[in-house]
Queue: 4 jobs
Job 1
Amino acid sequence: MAEIIEGGVIESFEEVPDVRVVRIRPDKWVEFKPGQYFQIFIPEGEETVKPYSVASPPSNRKYLEFCVKRVEGGHASNFMFNTEPGERLKMQGPMGRFVLQEQITNDIIFAATGTGISSIKPMIRTIFERGTDRQIWLFFGIRTENDIIYKKDFETLASKHKNFHFVPSLSRASEAWNGERGYVQDVMKRLIKDITNKDIYLCGVAEMVEQMRKIAEQLGFPKEKIHFEKYV
């Protein structure tokens, strides 16, 4: 049974429209693996719990970072969206088996949509903290340029590491956009031709993940090299 801990909100700020970063400093530090999540207890009304992936890497012991997308009418997301520094929250975790492998021996392809990026971000951070000469790809599907969560973080990482390839793909791009357009699964299929010695990690809405999983199988990825987590 995962441990129940309490913590205080220390920061809450807008990352992109309708997506907020909430940082919580736990009273007691709990070790977790990149990709895992915590259940956060939502105290307003009838108490409920909502899973949120930890977007900060395990090496950062100052706080647990959560990426929250506001859903219209969503009880949990609106509560989390409106939290302010000083508020106290109860959490249970860590949980989840969608985690980064201990040893990075292959090139890695990450593909995410929306706040599914919150599971992927600490994995990529941890890879480069450890150091690797493997090629690391991140395909990130979103609607518009204004929706690119953690854009500066990934662009900075790409500028520091030539083996990191950040490929955002917009489904509703403006005429001024010079990057990839269309659905992330189509972009990945077009750009990745050789799957030899590669692992693939998928995270996002269920429909995208299922399509990407099928594409990965069609490309020849062995099932044990396909790691995924679906969001409802």
Job 2
Amino acid sequence: MISQIPLGHTDIHITPLILGTWQAGKRGWVGIDDEDIITAIQTALEQGITTIDTAEIYGDGYSEELVGKAIKNYRGQAVIATKVFANHLAYDQVLLACENSLKRLQIDVIDLYQIHWPSGSWKSPVIPIDETMSALVKLQEQGKIRAIGVSNFNLTQLKEAQPHGVISSLQPPYSLFWRVPERELIPYCVAQGISILAYSPLAQGLLTGKFSPDQQFPPEDVRSKNILFQGELYQRAQSALAQLRPIASAYQVSLGTLALAWLLHQPRTHAIIGVRNREQVLANLPAITLQLRAETLAAMDQISRSVNDLIPADALLWKF
């Protein structure tokens, strides 16, 4: 049985691994099959990964629709997190976006409703955070959402939101090869009791070791914009992977399992895994129970520094 961990200070319990469904929306991804995604979601639920993360922007609602279809007979065990995008942060827009998400997901209440990007991102209108938060608190009072979270917020933005409602989670990009959140955000969240839902925990597949040193992605693949796949960062990542392989072999696990286990050893951290099919769900399960020794964690920390030392404190994972 997979352990259930409280979300923030709430009575909502989430799993160490969270099923991410950005790819289910298809936009920015290639080779995605609807039935494979539905089967993957149902497999995750059957295996005890109860928490599923989606967003209204993923394929303009298509991801939410697929999640809704997949969980139809599993609602009693599924914990659903979704997000309102940066262009819907005015009071009435938040309320409407939530209603639309509920319809697409075919549910009555969203367990965790998150601000996907801060106001002003992606050329969106600048809306005062108190206005957005007041709408989210209203949705809580109405029983349409259970908890509030934020995604892609920096520390200043997180602190600005907190006086206006209880923030239960932060969703940043975070992995062994992207440790930017450790500089400010994660210590603060740990002190505040805010859960960290790490997305891109395998650095969009880079940490699986499956990409060659000269890997090229088509323009329609979102990884073509990821700075970890470019220039010296990518070459340093390849060198680091070569040093991580003997560690994975010693534990008799894959590189991906090793990297996920490292992340799950970090305080208050959950890993959002994006999967295309049932096999990928099953392949990620061993990370939950893999216990890494202190000397292993220290070695992995040192290896990852060769990549992370090249990343500026204010860097963004993608150059869109």
Job 3
Amino acid sequence: MPEVYKQSFKQNYTNNVDLSVFNCGLERCAPGHTWGPGIRDHYLIHLILAGKGTLQTGGTSWELNPGDLFFVRPNQLAAYTADAQQPWEYCWVGFNGISAHKLASMLPFSDEQPVHHTLHPDTLYKAMDNIFRARGMRVQDETAMVGYLYLFLADLMEETDEQRPHSTNSSSQYVLNAIKYIQFNYSHDISIDDVARSVGVSRSHLYRVFMSNVGKSPINYLTEYRINEACKLLRAGSLSIAEVAISVGFFDQFYFSRVFKRAKGVPPSKYAAARQAGACPAEPADPV
């Protein structure tokens, strides 16, 4: 029987809150080796290289073989076990960050089907191996790992299009397209009607799919995004309040100040003054 081994790396700190590699590695498991049942606080993808095993989650069990990938979401109860006769060898990558949920929604996995068989195992293995080879605690190492992670996820997205193309009419796709429109156009004088037209749905339908997928209305998402971008500009300290307001799509400074205070608890002038005095306000969380 092949020798058991494990090579792994875990990130203890990240400079990149948008997307970061939490852990990665390669392992040839002992017969019957099991992880779980338990939950993770990050997204996790395994690629089976050899042997076989099982995944249990959501009351269902999947038999996995070489070329299969399995996907575990944060806070999802799961267990996976190496076969007693032909224990598996796999590589894995765990990731998290503000953009992780959006990226995960574009991968060929779902809650009902957390397993995907790749037609390009060598390509995906090389992509995951690059993440592991770039490992390290320096900022440049972390940057390289995130870069390779993006390339790995891009390869998986290609397989989503090739094997299980998502419908452009799905509610999640409408939301993703609307978010992209907002992120590229928030600094202009756009309305929710503009957002709805950009994705080809009515304003009322956009409201429903936003509430279902994001948990907030499109106007609340747009407002929060603008306010969080305003916070970044105020922390930089190089623009006046009026200039910040215009830069994030508010063309009435007094209205901007009212909305900002409602969102952050202080007017923008006090937020900026606190930053300059060293009493740093809480960092704004980007809307998801």
Job 4
Amino acid sequence: MSSVVVARGLVKRFGNLTAVDHIDFNIEQGEVFGFLGPNGAGKSTIIRMIQCVSPVTSGSLKVLNMDVQKQPREIKARLGVAPQDDNLDPDFSVLQNLTSYARYFNMPKDLANQRANELLEFMQLEEKRNTMIDDLSGGMKRRLIVARALINDPDIIILDEPTTGLDPQARHLIWERIRQLKQEGSTVILTTHYMDEAEQLCDRLVIMEHGRFLIEGKPRQMISDIVGDCVMEIVGADDEAEEYLRSTGKQVERSADRLYLYSNECRNIERDFQELYPKSQSIIRSSTMEDVFLRLTGRRLRE
């Protein structure tokens, strides 16, 4: 595979605030690459620099082997962007939103209509082609925004929180479409706050905080390396029980009402723990990307 996005020593500052702090990364052709992190971590700033809508402070950033500071128009023509916010035109119908957007890419009218109808079918919106935007549900609007991002048959597709606020059916439809785009060879850059979404879709991802990468890699490998294969959640553990769990040498974390023990040996630990502290309640579950995320960035609410 060849790299379609390459960053070296990338920095973005806003006055005295360093939003992106000397980061390096490659995104390979045909992969789904995710940016994860708390609010204010720098994810959106990186995406905006890739889109050529926010200038680079220092370092280098190349997209499709072009410098974002020297060839922004050429790069934008080959990107498809689905923003988090709803910016559809309410004065146009569903179909018109696609065909009018196609004009930005100098697409002939017949081709624009053909492409728009194909995409409406792809996103299961063909029956809504003549519906006005205000009459669509939230899920339909999100699907239309994704369809619009594909109108120019882009080399790189950027999906910024593509399933925020959607019901499970709409979420899974978009997941299916992202997988289909990957199978067809498209490169997808994804930002999301849904850890299960990142785990399901991303070939590789990074978790960011304060403008830097905390970790980069494949989701399942991250889970194995950071928290192990399983999590033991304990409710009702007193200080003595907590001290015992910490004495096992495993990773133990306390939240407001429970303890979390991360390990590859949860069953054995639970058996011994229940013999010593039978009044405590515990469950064992498989580890997830959410465990990795919270382990690295903490459980404190970010505003």
